[in-house]
Amino acid sequence: MDDRQNDISSVFTVIGIISITLGLFLGIYYIANQSYNSLGALQGVIGWTIFITGVLWGIVFFGFSKVIKLLQGIYNRMEENQHYASEFSITTNARVFSDSEESNKNNVPDHARSEIVEFFKEQEIQQISGTKLDDFYIVKVNDHRFIIELGGFTPKKVTQKRAKGLGII
């Protein structure tokens, strides 16, 4: 995502490692220690419970760490988009490259074109144009223009308000 990391995520990862390690060692210690032999079979159950509990809490902390990393990545992308918006707010229109122009033919990559065609599968696409921003395309379908963002898992139509904020229209 970005070279900026979240310290809380790193702390949760360390806590997860410590939890798993302590669960492993304390579970083995409790199972193997001679002073707890008087508990009989319960000694093994308690030892395994300590071990499994440590591993499960470690996994939970790893999960929290991953969620925080993903949220930090989303925040970083939003911050980056705001940077682009302020950069283009001086002009009313960002430069649009038509895919029919010979010099900018590569501006709409084949994978982007195929994602857009799949998104508008039962509609006739008249034109796909790239914009100055990565992953944003202007698509003309049935004489209507749509701004499509391809940065996520699926293509999304961009609202007029957001497109104006990004300087696309």
UniProtKB/TrEMBL annotation:
The keyword Membrane applies. It comes from the Bacteria. Keywords: Membrane, Transmembrane, Transmembrane helix. The chain crosses the membrane at residues 12-32, 44-68. The keyword Transmembrane applies. This is Uncharacterized protein. It comes from Aquibacillus halophilus.
